[in-house]
Specification:
homodimer, 315 residues, 2 domains, 14 helices, 6PGD_dom2 (chains A, B), 3-OHacyl-CoA_DH_NAD-bd (chains A, B), (3S)-3-hydroxyacyl-CoA dehydrogenase (NAD+) activity (chains A, B)
Chain lengths: 315, 315
């Protein structure tokens, strides 16, 4: 019986289980920590309670819950799985050992995908007998509310495996982004890193405060980036499209990029300045409460964007 | 009679007129090109037709239109204005000359604000008798659908003028971001520039294609950035908030920023690669049609975000 196996059921692993289950996949969940498995049903129920009002818990939320089963052994999780989504610790030695174990247990057709954001598939899968079926499928937190998944194969990953992974993620309702070559940070965190560096610098050097920085994105660039990427954005900002835009404004943008911040911007002083702006939300309880707010807003936004896409398709 | 004066009524100037008028301000519009003035009523009517279905044309769209009057002379526009929003060409010599003229005509209490994205107030207002009432109020295109306005005073701008400008923009429903020191590109375009540089590099060097790059933002980072900034985003990505986040992930992010692209990424090859991805939308007509789609999506998103904010306030 083909299904998805979730290995490691922390926040990310559970959200992956939810993603696949609400799309109709059967999901088997294993975690080395029995308490995580004991709490699984309750945690999934809480995710359904939060997302159902926004239509993000699947066509039949009870079926979503029923599609997820915790299992007692890694072998049970993997037996017959079409794809394993591994969401364990981001430590190279642990990841290498876990992938060796997954590779030894899983059937030959099973894809082994890691949620890793920090490690490349070539680093943890090299030399395994089944290296060619290993890759990274990097989600954003939380994956059930932010649909992108970066698919980053190692040079030794079979192209057929990469394509199958892409189809499975798309069938699960995610948006796969295909990396053609490995690079640290993949695409998403590289883009986040340059925004963080320049933001921290502008704050620390006193050009703008934290609230102003966030407002500039939230009420400015982020409005367009919620439904278009930065490339389509520039394509619409000159009468002749992107080439016209880069001809007109490229030199100005290059000048700004030339003086942009890099790693030196990540100072303790900058961190303190940001922390001070969020002093009321800086403990596990207050952060968790605000994460709940964030997740409700993400669910509402997902519902809004789906509804707009449906309307645009009808027109 | 106090009102807002719009000087230069191209796309940006007209959108500014609309912003102020829908908030209940009286608006006087002047442009050196009579054709622009002749078309003003029709252009405003078109903006109302597009935004009214999304609740973005003001409480009474007919009143919004009625609040906007084209006038034949600069003197008529400026007489009694509380703020002049200048949206003329981005050429220093023209801007300097225009500001000298505005300063000579406008009453002493009138704020002179430029929409400039490329020029600093210190460059075009220095030495004017009324230099202390000059500043930049930089909008995003289109300002009636993207509310941020970057307020960038020169060192010689009176703090009282800056605060009054902030109040007027806020009263008009915009989100003012206060720059504490001048910097090329202000905040928004500096952040856009680093994203463009890294994006163009990742595309040109073959890590990802244009669609994948845009999907990474649109279905990834942009989802959170539409209602939180990047600083609040990281504040929610570690149990102890931003300081905890930067302690855990700062070194990784710094490593990615260290190897990020700068001005060298703005190559003709990269521009061609982006252009090729949008070859169907690269002429004035096709770009304009897609801009209409963008503006409808921005209006729908503005309505969604207002509705969410109202619900969160009620809870």
């Amino acid at each position: 019986m083909s299904h998805i196996a979730i290995v490691g059921a922390g926040l990310i692993g559970r959200a992956w289980a939810f993603v696949f289950a609400r799309a109709g996949f059967q999901v088997r969940v294993w975690d080395m920590n029995q308490t995580v498995l004991d709490n699984l049903d309750a945690d999934i129920a809480a995710m359904i309670a939060q997302t159902e009002p926004f239509g993000q818990a699947g066509a039949d939320p009870r079926a979503t819950a029923a599609n997820i089963k915790g299992v007692a052994t890694l072998e049970q999780a993997l037996d017959g799985a079409i794809l394993v989504q591994e969401s364990g610790p981001e430590v190279l030695s642990i990841k290498r050992e876990l992938f060796a174990r997954l590779d030894a247990i899983a059937g030959a057709q099973t894809i082994l995908a890691s949620s890793s954001s920090a490690l490349l598939a070539s680093s943890f899968a090299e030399g395994l007998p089944g290296a060619s079926r290993c890759l990274v499928g990097h989600p954003v937190n939380p994956p059930h509310l932010v649909p992108v998944v970066e698919i980053s194969p190692a040079p030794f990953t079979a192209p057929e495996v990469t394509q199958r992974a892409r189809q499975i993620y798309a069938q699960a309702g995610q948006v796969p982004v295909m990396l053609k070559r490995e690079i640290d940070g993949f695409i998403l965190n590289r883009l986040q890193a340059v925004v963080l560096a320049e933001s921290l610098r502008l704050i620390e050097q006193g050009y703008v405060d934290v609230q102003g920085l966030d407002d500039t994105i939230r009420h400015g660039l982020g409005r367009r980036w919620a439904f278009m990427g930065p490339m389509e954005t520039i394509n619409l900002n000159a009468p002749g499209g992107a080439v016209d835009y880069l001809g007109r404004y490229g030199p100005m943008m290059a000048g700004l990029a030339e003086t942009s911040a890099r790693d030196e911007a990540f100072t303790p002083t900058a961190a303190q300045a940001v922390g001070a702006a969020f002093s009321a939300i800086s403990t596990p309880d207050t952060v968790r409460a605000r994460q709940d707010w964030r997740d409700s807003e993400l669910a509402a936004l997902a519902q809004h964007l789906s509804s707009r896409a449906a309307q645009n398709n009808q027109e």
